[in-house]
Every structure is written in structure tokens, then in C-alpha cells.
Write a structure and sequence with these properties.
Blueprint lengths: L16 E8 L2 E8 L5 H14 L5 H7 L5 E4 L2 H8 L3 E6 L6 E5 L28 H9 L7 E8 L5 E8 L5 H12 L9 H8 L11 E3 L2 H10 L2 E5 L5 E4 L17 H30 L10 H8 L6 H21 L2 H21 L5 H14 L5 H21 L1 H17 L1 E2 L2 E2 L52 H5 L1
Antiparallel strand pairs: 1-2, 2-4, 3-5, 4-5, 6-7, 7-9, 8-10, 9-10, 11-12
Length: 488
Amino acid sequence: MSTVPESWKELGESADFVCYEHQINAGTLYIGYFKSLTEEEVLQQHILSCLSNHSDMSFEDLYHCVPVAEKEISSDWDLIESKIYRGYVAIQLGRQSHHCILINAAASKGRNVTIPEVEFTVEGPREAFVESLDVNLNLVRKRLPYPDLRVKELTVGSISKSRIAIVYIKGIANEQYLQTCIQRIEDVQFDQITDSTLLQQMIEDNSNSIFPQTIGTERADYVAWAVSSGQLCVMKDGSPTAFFAPVNLWSFFITYEDYYLPWIVGSLLRMIRVFAVLFSVYASSLYVAVMTYHGQGISNVFLPTIVSSRINVPFPPIVEVLIMELVIELLREAGARLPTKIGQTIGIVGGIVLGTAAVEAALTSNFLLIIVALSALASFTTPIFRMSSTIRILRFPFIFAAQIWGLLGIFICTFALVAHLLRLTSLGMPYLVPIYPFRTSDLYDTVVRPPYSKFHHRFSFLRSPKPVRFDKKNANKKRDLKKRDIDE
């Protein structure tokens, strides 16, 4: 690398950096690129072949001759270096020149678009995001071929130089939310952003809260729906997960498959999820409270069964519950960390064997085993993984409070939880809206999924400049053709 220009010396310390000379009438061209980042076919057929066939052209004429769309001439070394690290080929005339032709020859290596793995659905499209930002933007744009769809691109990370794209619809997305999102991303001070989930935590309103304030998704159709509703979507190059904001608490119990099902079925499934979350949070703590302080409240119908199941258990209810909860968490973590087939076997066999052995060894009662198992199943009904993890963690403070104060402790924990949720915001929007602040007009798509004729307005809490989707007067009209119209 002794012949490379002085400004390229640092790049030449890497073994995969290639630099060689090419003579033209105007002088010596120095061509540099990373072979691990460039597409060999583009380099050979479009760039090097053009240089060989037009050696009599000037430096500027060569720029116009190369048949590649993404190219530019720059003398800013920071820009030149950053482009080379992204797969561009740099062509410099002479050792002392400050101008380089930058030609995009980046290799498009990565996996193909596949079905969603986390948010799998029976109904609807089966295209999931991949690790390429350009491919992900294509998946969104082909669903929203709208002239006002905008993409704002930023760079984050002093080392990673990660490409971040904010997708929104001009005239529908609120400008204040947009500027807040842009400002927070620009203010991120971190050297390496490996995934969008890191960025989620960095720009959320309250990073110390266990409740997520943005929703991550791998589904392009879900992002298209959110953007058309007035929300902002953030994508990162190299991450198969996008996230959007602002969101409220009720959004975490909605799966996009609800919109592909009849509205009555979708509403019923949502109500089941809400009930399942409440059961998962309160079931174990209610068991501890009742068995420790409020045994007189047990019905005579269940009393013999509960007493007979606990008669040989040597532990108090709190220890019994904690043992079973920790066993469930261990099985869940083991199943998640092992390969798929082995993980499924561990989860099923381990649950059956450990549950049966725990009851036979009198470490726990049959009644509690059923409660803990149902609580674990109920926590899985939450469609957003980050909220599911939050529900798992919430159970433990309620259990300890029930052991200390009984039902009063559960009420205290509930009030503390509600107070925390009242203070949370997402890009400045209240987390509990439309319940607090109460908005009757925005209750239509929370626990109940209404028919599409009711979606004539966007949510008012999104503060969209264009709140009306369509004319509600004609929403329910269904005009049938008469026989004479068909004959004509």
C-alpha cells in the first residue's frame, strides 16, 4: 500500500481494502474499495470496464460515463471515508487531489423476505421485515403508494454509523410528534446501535419504566396501518424490527390479525387478552393473600379441596408460590435459549415432570399448580413481547405485597401501578388515553374492535392535521344492482 494516497493510508491497514492504479490521459487514477463490502459484478462490469474503455476521457467525463445511478463527486474526506465503509468505490485523480468520484457498488447480501416468526398470523399477508433498510422501505412503500409518504434518514452511533429512517405521512402525522422523535434520535449519545430495540429504549419518555412506550413489529402491514393512522415508524438498517410511536397502553393488547377477522370475533379475542393479563397479574397474589390472611373468605365448596391439597405442604403460601413461579421462569428461559426442537421438548417434558414431582413431594399443592400454570399461559396471550415480559415481572411485587398486607397490599400495589401509568407518556402523549384524559370519541378501537364503518376518524389523541378518513354518512350504504341495471 505504499502507492496509495496519503489520506488512504489508514484504510490500507485493513487486509480487505484494495487499492490500485489505473492510467488515463488525464493522469493516474487511484481506485480504492473494501472487497468485503462491494459487489464484484458491479465493480467489474460497470466501473472497471468503463475505465478501461474510456481512458482518453477527463475526470469529470468519467463520472458521467459510469452507468451507476448512485454516484457523486466530493472533496469532504469524512463523507468519502463513510461512503467507502458502506460499500462505495472511491476514484481519485492523482495523489494530491482532494476530489473523489464515489460510486455505489455495495453488496446486497442478506436473507430473503420470509414469513413473520414472532407475529405469525393465519389471516393476512406473510411478509416480514429483514435486515436491509431498503428492502423494508420497499415493503412499506408498495403498501402505501402515496405521494405524501416521507422518509427522513438520520445517522446514529459514533462507531456503528447506523442508518435510521423515520417513516411518516406528511399532512397526517403531527408535526410536533415528528420533531420530538427526530430530536431525540439526534440527541442519542452512544457508539454502537446494533438493533432498533436499543434505540427504542434510548428515545422513550421514561427509560426507567418497565412499561414499553413504543411498539416493535416485524410486520410491514402493521407499520402501514400505523403510519396511515398518523403514527411515526422508525427503522434501522440491519434490524428486522421496526417500531412506531406514539402509542397508548391499549395498543399492546391489539394484534393486527384482529383487523383481518370479523369485528365480533376480533373484539372477543381482545377481551380475552385483557382478562388473561389481569388474571396473570392477580391470580398468584390473591392465592397468597387468601391463604395467609383471608381464609374465612374461601367458599365451603372449595375449602375441602384446598385444605386436602395443602395438608402435607410444609411451606407457607408465599414460599410455595415463589418456588412455582421461579420454576416456570426457569422453564421459560431454558426453552427460549435452547435450539427450537430441544426447547419445545424441555418446556413440555420439564413442565409435566417437575409439576408432577413437586406435587408428589408435597412441595406444592395441586390447586396452586393449576393457578401458576394458567397464569403463565395467560401471560403469553399478550401479542407484544416487551409487554409480555412486563406482565411477568409485575406478578412478583403483587405477591410480596399480598404476603405483607393481604388484600390491602394488592390494592396498594394496584394504586401505585395506576399512579405510575398516569404519569407515563409516549412522545409526550398520555399513556392511558383515551381513559385518561377521557375521550369518548376514541373508545371505539380499544378493548372492542368496531366494524370498519366506524373508522371514519383517526384518533384525536394523535392530533393529526387530517383527522377524517372518509365520509361517515356513506359508510354503511351498500348499493345493490337491480336486474334492469344488469341487463343494461
